[in-house]
Amino acid sequence: MVEMVKVAYGQSGASKTTNALGQRPMQARAYAARGAQCLLLKAPPAAGKSRALMFIALDKMHHQGLGKTIVCVPETSIGASFRSTPLSKDGFDHDWVVEDRWNLCLSGVEDAPTSQKVRAFTEFLTSDARVLVCTHATFRFGFDAVEQARGIEAFDDIFLAIDEFHHVSAADNNRLGEILRRIVRREKSHVMAMTGSYFRGDAVPVLRPEDEERFTIVTYSYYEQLDGYEFLKSLGVNYSFYRGQYINGLPEVLDTRLKTIIHIPHRGSAEAFGDKYDEVGRIIDLIGEHKGRDPDTGFDQVETADGRVLRIADLVDDGPGRDIVKAALSREIRGPDGRRDDAGDRAKVDIIIALGMAKEGFDWVWCEHALTIGYRASLTEIIQIIGRATRDAPGKPRALFTNLVAEPGVETGAVTDAVNDMLKAISGSLLMEQVLAPNFRFYRREDGDIREPISVDGQGQVTIGIRGLMEPPTERARDICEKDMNDLVASACQAMDARVLAPDTAPEVATQMMLTDIIERRYDNLSADETEAIRQDLAARMNILTLARREAATGFSESASGVFEGPPPSDGDDEPAGAPNTLFDLVRRFINVRELDIDLIDSVNAFRERFEVASKSLDSSLLAHVQTAMVAMRVQMTEEEARTLWVRIKRFRAQEGREPNVHASDPMEKRMAEALAWLKNRKAQMMRDGAG
Fold first, then answer.
1. Degrees to nearest 5, angle at CA 59 with 57 and 64
2. What is the largest CA-CA distance in the chain?
3. Mean pLDDT for the chain?
4. Closest to 210 measured CA to CA, from 184, 190, 188
5. Strands, E assignment, 431-588
6. 233 burial type by CB count under 10 A (0-12 exposed, 13-18 middle, 19+ buried)
């Protein structure tokens, strides 16, 4: 198993403190923007987005003249987060009240016919009720019915809240996105969108630029949330490779002593090897001996080899028993005082096995390990899955995300696909490191500059000075650097390919050519200076952690031009005394031991360094095979040229006793090596097609 990312946090407890209104820091930040007609809240799982919505909705209805609130969630299980909540007991001036009749996500109501829920939706708009909770689907159908009967005017003076906003798309065929655009452009309603994703999307943006400009954006970073926890102090993002069926790789990554959610592969994916029920059975057999099923909870009871009896919740089985399992999972164990019984609630279940469930909005605070089998093409989905393990809970000092993916081996007959998956996994880990890091801002540092080389403000934003940095020359460029960097980082991670990872590729290809191309394709009519300033900011954001980790590996000494100026970081469980144990400590020490300049930033290929980390889990022959496949993926060659060179390749092998080297100084030997890689890749493709 390869640890791709390890992030430690300071455990300040700040993210759980509340103000006089009973609001956590994120909720207070969002509430301060409550006057905005369109509000976009980006905050991680467990930050309290649902309660932030309650505070704002109550202010909209009681102080801003709006008559009703409609809350839309992607699936019924998430609707529980918006049930009635007594906010006044903590200092707010109103309580959040949702009558059962108007919560269309309640158990029982969720199974009602769509027509019945649409009828309830339309009745709500003409009733005296103030709050409705429904799914995205119900809202779409309800909107169409209401518009046909009364026109879009029926939604004037309504506060519309859309949870898990990344489900919305700017694509023309996304109905929810089309409805939202019409409501926003009409400017008669108020809208709040909430998401745990820090970028617009994997392919199609959530909002079109002209629509996004209407939104006031409030961001609360993963780093702020986790750094302010009381118990959880580290998060690891790991990858592991298996051969054959994924069951073969499970023993290495599944620790049954950790509270774990196992997400089995999507049906139809290469990793799925059989019937979903059979796969669950194989996983249970691997864990231990099945002893029966608890009739009250529906949990399977499985005895391990060392005599422990584990409670396993099977959410893959979509038969009638799943409702019992879901109800048991959502039922919190409470003590005589009405508060959560931590020991009892933690012991309730040990492992959850899921297919399409237990992702966004799923609240199991005790989850320590999110184990996902098969690569997830959606980076948003990866963030959502990791969020299942990042809740703060007593007795939970660390959380893990492990992605178990197919090893790009020769025997698969699909080397290119497996290598592509490996590249995507590397890309996902690099993006997650960016999501989990502090929010960086950079300034140009001059000789004699009296400003601190690194500082942090009250909202967790880290400001760093860089010599030679080109600062944004226009308001538009500054706006892009302040608002769009998360999206640009996501675009850069998705653009990573074999060309960028090749050993003979200069780092500047990644930091200059690729990033410049991404920026120019995304924004029209930028000047050369605007593009370069944005590129430098993006490169610094992506490479600062890689530089800090590289320096840490040398003990902060080999290239140091100064001394560590700040107080020594506190000791970590897995670090030697005095070593940095949080991302901020790591970056702070790095900045304080050397002068940081833009040339140093551009000398790093973070993608290549991350690939080298992943490669440590591959044996030498397999790594050589992967590198051959990567060469083939980036080579521009016709079949005719490859076959023509085959005669030369055979002669070369006979004379030299080895294959031609792609890194050779001789252009002909290099081209023969590329042709050989192309031919091997072509042969693997033909084997796969024949097997199919």
1. 105
2. 90
3. 82
4. 184
5. 439-444, 454-456, 461-466
6. buried
- Rounded Cα–Cα distance for residues 364 and 311 (Å): 14
143-152, 179-188, 291-300, 673-682: lowest mean pLDDT where?
673-682
383-435: pLDDT as tens digits: 778 888 888 999 999 999 998 888 776 444 455 666 676 777 777 777 777 77
> In terms of DSSP bridges, do strands 260-263 and 2-8 run parallel, antiparallel, or are they unpaired?
unpaired
Q: Which of 404, 376, 406 lies closest to 244 in space, CA to CA?
A: 406
Does position 574 have pLDDT exceeding 70, yes or no? Answer: no
From the number of C-beta atoms within 10 Å of its C-beta (0-12, 13-18, 19+), residue 279 rates as: buried
Integer Cα distance of 496 and 426 in angstroms: 9
DSSP bridge pairs for 263: 354, 372
Task: Quote the tokens at residue 521.
Answer: 């394709």
Map tokens 């903590």 to a residue: 90
Secondary element (H or E) of residue 532 = helix 528-553
Write the CB contacts of 671 (distance below 8 Å, at least 6 apart in sequence): 645
Domains of the chain: 15-219 (3.40.50.300), 231-406 (3.40.50.300), 435-615 (no CATH), 635-691 (no CATH)
- What phi and psi values does residue 49 have, to the nearest 5 degrees? -65, -40
Please say whether the dihedral angle defined by the alpha carbons of residues 391, 310, 318 and 353, taken in this order, is positive or negative: positive
Contact between 521 and 533 under an 8 Å Cβ cutoff? The reply is no
> Average pLDDT in the 369-374 region?
92
Cβ contacts of 139 within 8 Å, gap of 6 or more: 70, 72, 121, 176, 179
- Give the chain's radius of gyration (CA, Å): 27
In the chain, % of residues over pLDDT 70: 82
Which tops the pLDDT comparison, 159 or 195? Answer: 159
Distance CA 103, CA 121 (A): 10
Which residue is associated with the tokens 């961001």? 219
Give residue 215's identity as a one-letter amino acid code: F
Q: Name 351's bridge partners.
A: 260, 312
> What is the bridge-based pairing of β-strands 369-373 and 398-406?
parallel
- pTM value? 0.74
Return the axis-axis angle of helices 415-436 and 379-387, rounded to nearest 10°: 60
Cα 691 to Cα 660: distance, rounded to the nearest angstrom = 30
What one-character-per-residue DSSP string does 212-281 give?
Answer: HTTSEEEE--HHHHHHT-SS--EEEEEEEEESSSGGGGHHHH--TTS-EEEEPPPTTSTT--S-HHHHHH
CA gap 389, 312 in Å, rounded? 17
Looking at residue 198, its pLDDT comes to 59
Q: Token match 């100026």: residue?
A: 565
How far apart are alpha carbons 521 and 508 in whole angstroms? 19
